[in-house]
């Protein structure tokens, strides 16, 4: 596409904080590499204005690979009999946080499948113990769909943030990705409850999930505008060999990067991770994500002996290393592109230092 027209579109999106379906399609399908670089440069400039050249770190603790759900895309879905399952004990979770804190982490993300063997009381007790041991750290939960009462209890116990990708805002597409027991409506209800309770909330999608159309992505952006998330997690869909989507194509890295850049233009101060899935799909995916406007990385703090069991998709990176090695590797990677790791909790700019 003609350079000056392309630049005008980018300028328009930036100025209005809005995008039309036509503009979205042009940006996601344009084949000119130099145009793409203009998009990334604009997104970088916006991120730099809000966050400088600092990257926030979140220490991810994948504490259980048991799940009662059966999402078609997910390697730890209930029906995958080949998945080897594990669940960390409370003390092991605490120990992950302790070693993370020694490495300088100021945010812990507790993620798992929907594992009913952890009761609300268990989650609240773990949250309280983490916050007692590390009062200067933020605690993020990512444990799926729960009742409003459960979310309220976790919040009172000390959880500050919650990640729950909406996966897709389109009901038909949602039904293509999930069994009937799960609904788009309940997923959205959860996100609105979380936001109303006071959490810093993250939603998000997989790019290139089976059946996803350009219109779906536009609907996702509209949903995000209504929700007003503090964080948006997007990464390419990557097939897992033991799921119904084993033979589906992987999501495009280039479209993921462009969408990251568009989200940065539309939501200048949103927290935007360069995800592990992006790093798996492309050896330099996380660096490229930051150069397209992302400002968060989520290295793994789970014990190395269980990491390869939390396999959401094939080929997942960083399943062998110790946390300390991962940090050194990431540090080198981001310094090589002119960025540095922030020592702060990395709250959303609206919430600095508070819930
Ligand atoms: N159970 C929690 C939940 O539902 O939010 C957290 C765990 S869930 C595995 C975390 C995210 O992994 C999902 O929201 C999904 O977007 C992503 N994911 C799952 N399978 C994937 C795949 N095959 N490729 C890329 N991302 C995947
Ligand atoms: Fe439950 Fe993936 S199906 S975490």
Description:
- The protein is an alpha/beta fold and 355 residues long.
- Helix content is 44%, strand content 12%.
- The chain is built from 14 helices and nine strands.
- The strands form two sheets. The protein has a six-stranded parallel beta sheet. A three-stranded parallel beta sheet has the order 8-1-9, with helices on one face.
- α5 packs parallel to α6 and α6 packs parallel to α8.
- The chain is globular and about 60 Å long.
- The N and C termini lie far apart (44 Å).
- The model has no long low-confidence stretch (mean pLDDT 96).
- The structure holds S-adenosylmethionine and FE2/S2 (inorganic) cluster.
- The site of FE2/S2 (inorganic) cluster has 8 residues, from loops.
Distance between the termini: 44 Å
Number of helices: 14
Provide the domain count: 1
Largest sheet: 6 strands, parallel
Number of strands: 9
Relevant terms:
355 residues; alpha/beta; TIM Barrel; 6-stranded parallel beta sheet; 3-stranded parallel beta sheet; 14 helices; 44% helix; globular; binds S-adenosylmethionine; binds FE2/S2 (inorganic) cluster
In short:
The protein has 355 residues and is α/β, with parallel strands linked by helices. 44% of the residues lie in helices and 12% in strands.
């Amino acid at each position: 596409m003609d350079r000056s027209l392309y630049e005008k579109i980018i300028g328009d999106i930036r100025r209005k904080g809005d995008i039309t379906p036509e503009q979205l399609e042009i940006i996601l399908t344009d084949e000119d590499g130099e145009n793409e670089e203009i998009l990334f440069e604009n997104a970088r400039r916006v991120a730099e204005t809000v966050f400088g050249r600092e990257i926030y770190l979140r220490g991810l603790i994948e504490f259980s690979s048991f799940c009662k759900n059966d999402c078609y895309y997910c390697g730890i879905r209930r029906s995958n009999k080949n998945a080897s399952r594990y669940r960390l004990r409370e003390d092991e979770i605490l120990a992950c946080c302790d070693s993370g804190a020694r490495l300088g982490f100021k945010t812990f993300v507790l993620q798992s499948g929907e594992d009913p063997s952890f009761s609300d009381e268990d989650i609240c007790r773990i949250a309280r113990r983490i916050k007692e041991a590390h009062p200067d750290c933020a605690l993020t939960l990512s444990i799926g769909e729960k009742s409003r009462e459960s979310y309220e209890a976790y919040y009172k116990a000390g959880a500050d943030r919650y990640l729950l990708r909406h996966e897709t805002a389109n009901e038909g597409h949602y039904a293509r990705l999930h069994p009937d027991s799960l609904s788009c409506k309940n997923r959205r209800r959860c996100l609105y409850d979380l936001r109303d309770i006071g959490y810093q909330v993250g939603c998000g999608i997989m790019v290139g999930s089976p059946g996803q159309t350009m219109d779906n992505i536009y609907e996702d952006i509209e949903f995000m505008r209504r929700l007003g998330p503090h964080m948006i997690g997007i990464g390419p869909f990557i097939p897992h060999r033991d799921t119904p989507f084993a033979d589906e194509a992987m999501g495009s890295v280039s479209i993921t990067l462009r969408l990251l850049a568009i989200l940065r233009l539309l939501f200048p101060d949103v927290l935007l991770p360069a995800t592990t899935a992006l790093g798996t799909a492309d050896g330099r995916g996380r660096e490229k994500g930051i150069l397209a406007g992302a400002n968060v990385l989520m290295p793994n703090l789970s014990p190395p002996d269980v990491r390869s069991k939390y396999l959401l998709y094939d080929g997942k990176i960083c399943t062998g290393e110790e946390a300390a090695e991962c940090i050194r590797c990431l540090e080198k990677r981001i310094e090589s592109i002119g960025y540095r790791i922030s020592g702060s909790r990395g709250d959303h700019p609206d919430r600095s230092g508070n819930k």
